[in-house]
Amino acid sequence: MRIHYLFEIDVQRFLEGNPPAPAWVAESLKAAPFVVVRRGPAARNQVPVGVRGAERHQRWGGSCDPRWVRRIVTPAALLNALSRLRVDSIPAMRSLAILANHESWKTLAHIWGPGGSVGFELATGHPTAKPASDLDVVLYVDGYLSVEDAEVLHATTKNLPAAVDVRVEAPLCGFSLSEYASRAPPMLLRTNSGVVLGKNPWHPIRS
User: Do 88 and 190 lie in a common domain?
Assistant: First the structure.
């Protein structure tokens, strides 16, 4: 399973299999029974996941046994659900529609799709994106992304209706596309061991 994948879960089994959670966790899962794959430690044979609450500060980390998963939704799959975008009222959704029709993203060799509140809404049908929401984009790079290609992609995210944050998920870490394209290391590298400063996201240990 990859970071930012969404799991539709058996809520009862999930809650029973995790430590006690704040009351809002059960309420949120009742409204939308989905969790998001995250980085972090988890029990053996389980996947670290996060639960989104109604408020921005409401984020809770737990673990999910694969047997509790009813359906897996990837960010890339959500590009097939663009007809559900509320483009008239949510600037972040308008921004996604623009990017999805941009030649640089349409022909991109790497897998990508929406994350954050926009991705969550497209996956669940639960209205989570707000007029002030940013657009979070997940870009999976299994091989290598040059700084030059990053600059081209980053340029397409400027001057859109909403701010766009592209998170690159590389084999060894996650990092910001804008930081990488800026050519101004060190940058924040999100690894399984925590966040570190580094110059080379393709070899973060030796950065």
Answer: yes
Catalytic residue among 10, 65, 88, 136: 136
The first and second tokens of residue 145, run together, are 């992304």
The structure's pTM equals: 0.93
Structural domain includes residue 43: yes
One domain, residues 67 and 102: no
With contact defined as beta carbons under 8 Å apart, do 118 and 98 qualify? no
Are both 68 and 93 inside the same structural domain?
Answer: no
Together in a domain, 109 and 159: yes
The catalytic residue among 10, 65, 134, 165 is 134
**Cα Rg of the chain (Å, integer):** 17
Could you give the CA distance from residue 157 to residue 151 in angstroms, rounded to a whole number?
10
Per-residue model confidence as pLDDT tens for the chain (207 residues): 899 999 999 999 999 999 999 999 999 999 999 999 999 876 788 999 999 998 888 999 999 999 999 999 999 999 999 999 999 999 999 999 999 999 999 999 999 999 999 999 999 999 999 999 999 999 999 999 999 999 999 999 999 999 999 999 999 899 999 999 998 889 999 998 889 999 889 886 554
Please say which residue of 73, 91, 112 terminates a domain. 73
142 tagged catalytic: no
165 labelled catalytic: no
